[in-house]
């Protein structure tokens, strides 16, 4: 029911059958076991949209003031706000116990909205969804998977050239399904009344103060006049900025286990820019992605 079988795999000319949604098993495990609470807060996204940044911001907004927990300071945002399908339910053995965590729990997911655990949707908990220009998502994704996925032939995820990977991306063969469907899934759910805030990576870059205020209000923890006077907003923005995080101790040596693979924390920070895609995509490739976006998002306020 989550993903129609005929669209779940595609045949690559050299590498054979490749799943377009290889995390589907973990999504099913999450659907089966996850028990939602209305007090949960979810960070949701497609990989490479700025998830780690938003996790850090949400954590700092929710845990500010009396809620601060300094023993977690050296943990990566992925440890403080774990992914349901990549960490909590990375296997049937439930790698992390979230049922005994006190509320409010901060959790995250890359699962497309229509495939989210029913219990999560029914809880009505707030979901913050971050999305990003597909050209930037594609380039970031290509680098990320080149770096973490072993390149020996015969592995589940054979390395693809940028042109092969681009063809896959345009045709919707991505790890959590098609880019445009993913964004539209959350956008449509919000339009239909779900408790979702959509934030665009590029807007967060251009005007972090406005976005952070909106985020805090959405989480029902607006910044007080006092906090504004004390520059708390700028303090959070600076603490979560690309350079600050890159220079922090946690990124020097730490690893995060995702789907039982140790991923070095430095892998989650590459360039942190809005226009780095210009160095990798030809004008023709960029035009193709822009055209697809205009077509797919035609009836929305996303463009
Ligand atoms: P680039 O590869 O374009 O640099 P995700 O967390 O969803 O995997 O997204 C990773 C992308 O977000 C990477 O993009 C990464 O550099 C960028 N990123 C991570 N932390 C950031 C921050 N604090 N500010 C801006 N961009 C950040």
TrEMBL record:
Cellular component aspect of the GO annotation: cytoplasm
Which keywords does this chain's UniProt record carry?
Transferase
Task: Please give the Pfam families that the UniProt record associates with this protein.
Answer: Sulfotransfer_1
What the entry lists under SUPFAM superfamilies is as follows: P-loop containing nucleoside triphosphate hydrolases
Q: Which InterPro entries match?
A: P-loop_NTPase, Sulfotransferase_dom
Family the UniProt entry places it in:
Belongs to the sulfotransferase 1 family.
Q: What is this protein called?
A: Sulfotransferase
């Amino acid at each position: 029911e989550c993903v129609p079988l005929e669209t779940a795999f595609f045949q690559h000319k050299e590498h054979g059958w490749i799943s377009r949604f290889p995390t589907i098993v973990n999504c099913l495990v999450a659907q089966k076991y996850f028990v939602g609470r209305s007090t949960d807060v979810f960070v949701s996204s497609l990989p490479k949209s700025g998830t780690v940044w938003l996790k850090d911001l949400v954590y700092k907004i929710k845990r500010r003031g009396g809620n601060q927990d300094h023993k977690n300071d050296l943990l990566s945002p992925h440890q403080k706000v774990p992914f349901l399908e990549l960490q909590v339910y990375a296997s049937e053995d439930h790698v992390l116990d979230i049922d005994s965590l006190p509320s409010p729990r901060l959790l995250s997911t890359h699962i497309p909205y229509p495939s989210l655990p029913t219990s999560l949707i029914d809880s009505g908990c707030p979901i913050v969804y971050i999305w990003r220009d597909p050209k930037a998502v594609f380039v970031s994704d290509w680098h990320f998977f080149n770096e973490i996925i072993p390149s020996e032939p015969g592995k589940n995820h054979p390395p693809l050239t940028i042109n092969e990977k681009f063809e896959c991306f345009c045709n919707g063969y991505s790890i959590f399904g098609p880019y445009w469907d993913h964004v539209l899934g959350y956008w449509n759910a919000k339009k239909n009344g779900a408790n979702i805030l959509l934030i665009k990576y590029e807007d967060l870059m251009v005007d972090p103060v406005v976005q952070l205020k909106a985020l805090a209000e959405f989480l029902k923890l607006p910044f007080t006049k006092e906090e504004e006077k004390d520059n708390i907003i700028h303090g959070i923005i600076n603490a979560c900025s690309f350079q600050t995080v890159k220079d922090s101790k946690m990124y020097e040596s730490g690893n995060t286990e995702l789907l039982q693979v140790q991923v070095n924390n430095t892998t989650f920070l590459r360039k942190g820019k809005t226009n780095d895609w210009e160095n990798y995509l030809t004008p023709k490739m960029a035009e193709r992605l822009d055209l697809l976006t205009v077509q797919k998002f035609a009836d929305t306020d996303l463009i």
